[in-house]
Design brief:
alpha/beta; Rossmann fold; 5-stranded parallel sheet; Helicase, Ruva Protein, domain 3; 3-stranded mixed sheet
Amino acid sequence: MTKTCTSYNPQKSRNTATTAEGRLNALPVLSPQKINDCLDEFGYHGQNEARRSVCLNAYRHVKRLKSLHVKKIPCHLLPQHSNAILIGPTGCGKSYIIELIFGKILKLPYVIVEMTRFAETGYVGDDVLNILTRLLESANGDLGLAECGVVALDEFDKIAGSNSNARFAGQGTTKDVSGYGVQRELLKMVEGADIQIPLDYGFSNRGSRRVMSTRNITFFALGAFTGFKDVERSGRNGIGFNKNAEEEERIAYKLSEEEAEDIGGFQTYGFIPELIARFNRITLFQPLDAATLTKILCNKLEKYKVEFNEEGFELQVNNNVFDFLVKEALKKRTGARALDSAIMKYLEGVCFECFGQGRIGTVTLRLGKGKLQAEVKIRA
């Protein structure tokens, strides 16, 4: 039996669309299993254990919001909202699962922000408060709805502090602009507070502001945490690399559950313990294997076929091409991101010659003598 994903459609509640209560009242409570099924329908493959955790977190987020805004249950009678850290190598689907669940399935306001661009307030770089400004923009300026949204802090591991343990105890006044400084700015936001946010992305300390509550916003911290094990073993403060270590030992997705739950390890890595403690769950994502990459490749090639059809060409791919492209992607160690690179490496020349010419024909990707070639046939 075919399962149908019923996502939230804000157009069904036009008369109450301006209020968070009306929008949430129209939002169906999809079970964690149903959200997981919807991920399959949108072409998300692999990460069975991790996706169950994220789907449950999404369900609890929606259920809590409806209890607060629709059923009017007092906040102190409900469990606190749950934040999570998602650890895994690049291209394994950490940010994509957030995009699908909250952007496509639940259609709640959400933002995925690149943390390497932020600096402590008063320094060159984006102000951390602009994260909430972007969330408000995602909610089309509806403050009540933005306060029910989701924030994904991508490349979270890149804001690990520099080599000074003194700051953990509050000693000294030296600022770490891109490390501990950003973490201190995030701490109040993640733990839940009323925060004055700028309404522009310029000089936020001079412009108009609005007060946003972060008490019901769910935060996800995403990162690879490269070198985590090396730092934990050596006890060093910096992010050292063992040149003799295998790649799988340097990437944090090989952490055990006990290692992932050790806040002391994150402190050694360069994080304020109070910040890590604001995340209730640490979820481990695994590297994508060949079987999963093959499924993803099939989805991607279908999209390329649509593009070629728009240009008047039928794209055909021989079966032995799939294994060849997946092997190339695995060598790059960048997960699903490597697939597009592998595909376009062999289609780029054909696209340049054929696209926009008004011709009709067939393009076939075939493997011969260990080499992948694109064969073009133009119809008269």
